[in-house]
């Protein structure tokens, strides 16, 4: 993998991790369209570790929220009142929302990795993302804020995140749609979606590190990883800022149209 390729894929990862058009799908699609061929195991490790760039983008954008959640989570837990404040409850909700994807991801790791090698599957799952976005707009009443999230909401959105283990299903799209079907407004659903990306991407990255160190030769792989990481961080931060502002006034339909066109194009080609 060249540095130019790493930059392009890092930017693609950063933009599409949060914009609901599927980062995993585009990381499969872009190399296929440009005729780039990578070792399958290295490509998968690159995709997962470069997600840490977008993870740091979340840390930076939501740093105050994350600090408050962490401090109040520990404080109320030490006092024996773990659910006493909104931020402490949010910490528990994020843990609960993470469990479904972690369980399914560990049990189906090999199956998920093999799916990433199939552009056809990516096309089909991009169409599924479009369906999820349209369904959320039709079914959601959008009359609840983040402060009104319940235990069942968190678990429901966590189950939606399981779909995003498949290439072509947008993680942000699936979880935002999950939140909206529980009648969260678009901005609230997006905020919870981005916050719950932290433990998932952190865990996936740790597992990928183990695979990285298992490679016999990785010296020539470290520089592209670092370049891709920083490209994803910058583009990811910009994508979060833009999408939060966009969703306060606009629907998800434009992203559903994009996913439909991209999915059909992949299947036709």
From TrEMBL:
Cited InterPro entries: UppP
Pfam families: BacA
Any one cellular-component term (Gene Ontology): plasma membrane
Reactions catalysed: di-trans,octa-cis-undecaprenyl diphosphate + H2O = di-trans,octa-cis-undecaprenyl phosphate + phosphate + H(+)
EC numbers for this chain: 3.6.1.27
TM stretches of this protein: 42-62, 90-108, 120-139, 189-209, 221-244, 250-268
Gene Ontology biological-process entries: cell wall organization; peptidoglycan biosynthetic process; regulation of cell shape; response to antibiotic
Membrane topology classification: Multi-pass membrane protein
Uppermost EC category: hydrolase
Record's subcellular location: Cell inner membrane; Cell membrane
Superkingdom, taxonomy of origin: Bacteria
One Gene Ontology molecular-function label: undecaprenyl-diphosphatase activity
Record's keyword terms, sorted: Antibiotic resistance, Cell inner membrane, Cell membrane, Cell shape, Cell wall biogenesis/degradation, Hydrolase, Membrane, Peptidoglycan synthesis, Transmembrane, Transmembrane helix
Broad class of where this protein is predominantly found: membrane
Family: Belongs to the UppP family.
Function: Catalyzes the dephosphorylation of undecaprenyl diphosphate (UPP). Confers resistance to bacitracin.
Miscellaneous field: Bacitracin is thought to be involved in the inhibition of peptidoglycan synthesis by sequestering undecaprenyl diphosphate, thereby reducing the pool of lipid carrier available.
PANTHER family: UNDECAPRENYL-DIPHOSPHATASE
Entry protein name: Undecaprenyl-diphosphatase
Organism whose genome encodes this protein: Desulfocapsa sulfexigens (strain DSM 10523 / SB164P1)
